[in-house]
Structures are given as structure tokens and as C-alpha cells.
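[Automated response] Your request has been received and processed.

Submitted sequence:
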Amino acid sequence: RIDGGGSTKGTLLDIYAPQLQTGVAVRIKGGSNLRETGKLLELKSTSTSAVTSGVVDISTEKLESGSLMSLHGKNLHSDANVLNIMNDGSIGNGGSIMHVSTGRVTNGNAINIEANALTEGYGVLIKGGENLQSTAFLLKVESKGASPGGIVSFAATDVKGGNVLKVHAEDMSSGNIFQIIGEMSSDSNEKA
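Generated structure:
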């Protein structure tokens, strides 16, 4: 047990391994008998103020290849997840469960999903929407920029059959499958 007592700054546990190449600085093994609330590692914070660097901060100064953090899951069954992010309270004032920011990065991908071996299922699945109000959406893309190729792009190469884009609506009692609204500025000669 490490008790910080009245410490308000500094480091309570410092592990220094500058020459480590193939080993592990910290290893926790076990978990085969864990049930319900059991955990191999638990981090709890009682802070209610903004922590700019996060309660947990993982950083690197120069990463040329590989990953800063890797999560591995093998032979997942039923409702098992490699990563499970939950929020049991409310989200307000522009908050979010997950926030991805590219900062000053000017090229590359903010999120990259590869599912090359996928034969059944979905690369991305968004469920819900039963209680959506008039200004709420399951997926929303916002942009103030202009791109000759479009804000949203669907691309497919060497398609042998099937559909590039499929929209399915069933048992609709009212509304539209597609609603396209365009409005040009007053000083533009182009048509929406």
C-alpha cells in the first residue's frame, strides 16, 4: 500500500527503466477467477474539476511506428467487448463520452477502422433513436469548410456486385426516406 497522506504534488510511485527493450516494466497476471465487480486494475477519481491532461495520461514525444496503447481481445463471445465505455449519468454543456481531437495535424485520419476479414456483421453499428427529438440525430456531420470532392465521400473499388450504398426504411408511417435542403448565399450565382 502507498499512502500519499497530505501530499499535494510530486510522484508517489516512480518506475524508471530507460534501457528496457523486450521486457515489461509492470505486469499484473491473473483474472481467470474474476467475477462481476472483480478487477485486476482499478483507478478511481473523486475530482469534480477539469483535469486538462486527464485522470490517466499516456503520452509519447516521438512515435515513429507501432501504437501508443494497444488493447487485444481474442475469441470474443456473446456480448464481450475489448473496450467498454459507459456513462451512467447525464451529458451536458457540450460534453461527450468520447472526444477525438487532431489538434494541429493537417493530414492522415482521425479515426481509422480496418475490417478486412469481416464477412458478417458491420464495420460500424449505431443503434437506438427511438426517442429522438426533431433536432437530434444518430449521426451528424458538421463542416464550415468547402471541398471540391464533397464533405462526405463514399468510395468503392473493384466492386463485383451488390450495392455501394443501401438505404432501407421499413414500416414508415410518415416522413421521408431522404430530405435534401440546400440554400445558397445571397451573393452567389450558383444553384443548390
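Summary generated for your ticket: The two ends are 66 Å apart (CA to CA). The chain has a mean pLDDT of 85.
If you did not submit this request, please reply to this message.
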